[in-house]
Specification:
- With about 325 residues, this protein is an alpha/beta fold.
- The chain is about 35% helix and about 15% strand.
- The chain is built from 13 helices and 14 strands.
- It has an 8-stranded parallel beta barrel with strand order 5-6-7-8-9-10-13-14, surrounded by 7 helices. It has a 4-stranded antiparallel sheet with strand order 2-3-1-4. The protein has a two-stranded antiparallel ribbon with strand order 11-12.
- α5 links the parallel β6 and β7.
- α11 packs parallel to α12.
- The structure holds phosphoenolpyruvate and manganese (II) ion.
């Protein structure tokens, strides 16, 4: 907010025009002692000192961000490689996860995803093989030279999961489980934070702040679709939020099209769209034998389809323009 001088002859319209000339979106504020102007999103970053130098400006006040730790990590989001994270919905057996790891490694991905404990909407659905699957998952990842991304769904299991995973996942159903966020943060590892299925971007960013405050090494945001209204595309993949987090907030965002759209035939185009929107990578479900999968088989890619996705991503371009944060850093 810019507060203007009260002196006779000060012209708010002229200050406003100068601000607009700098590419800022402005709104005149009424009712204060002195005339004032608010600078609104999606304005680019401008140093307050530069605004102070404009004639007629008395004071520049910046609002304090409610997620300072998230903001601070924005500088870390660089133009690194585009990540492909893949694997089955769940670890089902030692043989299944080994075959999955093989296809993921052969497709050129660096991370294997698979659930050990699965929070399921129905209590009668397969909810993961549990603790024994941690060892199967770790062995398969090691054998094929992959990192592990897996979900922590309860405070009690956090430590055991942290022992085998390089990246801890928080699922959509737990994004606002603050005790769990605190416990997972204390593991001091990178966390893949899925967006709650009806969470606003602000709620998502603040969930990230909970994790970082508790000690998480890094928070990677994961868009997996929000509640829409059309069952044909199940959860609505919010690429607007992906672009916002990547380009406005400078965050690393991973897109999970599998849980969004729920069908394998749309995974390649959505992954390409995610990349174009500014995502740092994608996480997709893949299974050595999708027809036999104990959960989410309809959205799981087989080995050939995963290879085709990897090829499609390799020949795609990342967006040519930098994020706001990266641009500000020059
Ligand atoms: C998952 O990735 O395994 C999963 C359960 O996803 P979500 O939390 O997005 O439903
Ligand atoms: Mn799944």
């Amino acid at each position: 907010m810019i507060v203007l001088k009260l002196s006779a002859g000060a012209d708010p319209g002229q200050v406003m025009a100068q601000l607009q000339g700098m590419g800022l979106w402005t709104q005149a504020l009424q009712g204060g002692v002195a005339p004032a102007i608010a600078i609104l999103p999606p304005s680019p970053d401008v140093a307050p000192e530069r605004l102070m130098r404009l004639s007629g400006v008395a004071e520049v006040m910046s609002s304090v961000s409610p997620h300072a730790l998230v903001d601070r990590q924005s500088s870390k989001a660089g133009a690194a490689d585009f990540y492909l994270i893949a694997g089955p919905c769940a670890v089902e057996s030692a043989e299944q996860i080994d075959a999955a790891a093989e296809m993921v490694a052969r497709a050129g991905a660096r991370y294997l995803r698979a659930g050990v404990y699965k929070p399921r909407t129905s209590p009668y659905s397969f909810n993961g093989a549990g603790q024994v699957a941690c060892r199967w998952l770790a062995d398969a990842a090691k054998a094929w030279g992959l990192g592990v991304v897996t979900e922590v769904y309860s405070e009690e299991t956090a430590e055991a999961i942290a022992d085998v995973a390089q990246v801890l996942q928080i699922g959509t159903r737990n994004m606002a489980n603050f005790a769990l966020l605190e416990r997972v943060g204390r593991c001091e590892k990178p966390v893949l934070l899925k967006r709650g299925m009806a969470a606003t971007v602000d709620e998502w960013l603040l969930a990230g702040e909970h994790l970082l405050k508790a000690g998480a090494k890094e928070v990677i945001f994961c868009e997996r679709g929000v509640r829409g209204f059309d069952p044909q595309t199940r959860n609505l993949l919010d690429l607007g939020a992906v672009a916002l987090l990547a380009h406005h907030y400078g965050q690393a965002v991973i897109v999970d099209p599998s849980h969004a759209v729920g069908r394998k035939d749309l995974i390649v185009p959505l992954c390409l769209a995610a990349r174009a929107a500014g995502a740092a990578g994608v996480m997709v479900e893949a299974h050595p034998s999708p027809a036999q999968a104990r959960s989410d088989g309809a959205q799981a890619l087989d080995a050939d389809q995963l290879g085709a996705l990897s090829d499609a991503l390799a020949s795609a371009q990342s967006p040519a323009w930098p994020s706001k944060t990266r641009a500000a850093q020059g």
